[in-house]
Amino acid sequence: MPEISNYKHITPVTVRFHEVDMLGVCNNAVYISYFEQARLQYIKDIGMMPAGGIFTDGFVYFMVRNEINYRGHSYYDDDLSIYTRISFIKNSSYGFDHLIVKTKTGKKIVDGKGVIVRVDPKTHKSIPLSDEFIKAVTDYEKEVQILR
Predict the structure, then answer these.
(1) Are 135 and 2 in contact (CB under 8 A)?
(2) What is 51-104 written as a DSSP string?
(3) Backbone torsions φ then ψ of 4, nearest 5 degrees
């Protein structure tokens, strides 16, 4: 189980009514949406969101892997903290790690990983990540592994 101390970035969320099932438990698929929300907030917070907003810079990024481990439950109106980091950077891909914790209790309820690839919008083939992106991440994440 990942340690909270390994994460610098936090995105707060509150479980909404439409995200729970008939038992009042947050649906398992919702956590993938929370991961995505946290990834986008991370990119904004390190200054890598295009000035015109997402999809305006001509670059395409594909999510090619999601992994999730369920360790507990959350319920309607629970406040959650989504801890996020980029753990590695390769030539054209990078990996996110996530940890979701109940804010009040500190209980870890979900952890997971994801891999994103930068893709040429015309050929749909992977292309190298920009030096600007790598610098922004390495300036923010001192422990990121560069695997180029």
Answers:
(1) no
(2) TT-TT-SS-EEEEEEEEEEE-S--BTT-EEEEEEEEEEE-SSEEEEEEEEEETT
(3) -60, -35
Torsion of CA 126, 130, 136, 137, to 10 degrees: 30
pLDDT greater than 80 at residue 55: no
Give me the domain span that covers residue 94: 4-146
Query: What are the tokens at 26?
Result: 């947050």
**In the block, which residue shows the tokens 């398992």?**
28
> Residue 87's domain is classified under what CATH number?
3.10.129.10
pTM over 0.90: yes
> For the chain, what is the domain count?
1
